[in-house]
Amino acid sequence: MDREEGKGSLKHREYQRLLAEYFRNQGMVTVIEAFIGKNVDVLIIDAGKTIAIEIQLTPKHCLQIEKDYELGCDEVWVVCESNGILENIESKTREELAKSLFDKTKFCLMRELLPPSNSENKRISHNGITEGKTGI
Q1: Mean pLDDT of 100-117
Q2: Which DSSP symbol is given to 116?
Q3: Which one is predicted more confidently, 129 or 44?
Q4: String of b and e for 19-39 (b: at least 16 CB within 10 Å)?
């Protein structure tokens, strides 16, 4: 279902592909560059829950997290490559986003979402990585 080309730099497109593949292998529906009224880097649908994943590789803050929620996403995950970028975006978002939306937005590093290849029995949840194959 993915549009294989994705958008952004080669690294950004590779992260889109890896995340979509990881969640798809766990039985979830994934769409790269899903258009829900705006584009979402990776959209995950699992058991009626919709999660927008927004990948940020630079501190340039141009996310439209509030728009993701307005367009029907249950959760938004902001995924960054480095701690510095993550902290910068999380700080700016805390100032700009309503507290109720900020509190349900997850900020994480790419390495936290993509487990090592020897951890195939682990599953990502909105609270972190858990054992087994339960729903999000």
Answers
A1: 88
A2: -
A3: 44
A4: bbebbeebebebbbbbebeee
In this prediction, residue 121 carries a pLDDT of 46
Cα 41 to chain centroid, rounded: 8
Tokens for 71?
Answer: 């367009």
Q: Which two tokens stand for residue 2?
A: 């993915």
Read off the pLDDT of residues 50-103 as tens digits, 9 standing for 90 and up.
Answer: 999 999 998 876 678 999 999 999 999 999 999 999 999 999 999 999 999 999
Burial of 118 (0-12, 13-18, 19+ CB in 10 A): exposed
Length of the chain in terms of residues written: 136
Cβ within 8 Å of residue 55, ≥6 positions away: 8, 12, 15, 16, 19, 41, 42, 79, 80, 110
CATH architecture of structural domain 10-131: 3-Layer(aba) Sandwich (3.40)
Domain boundaries, the chain: 10-131
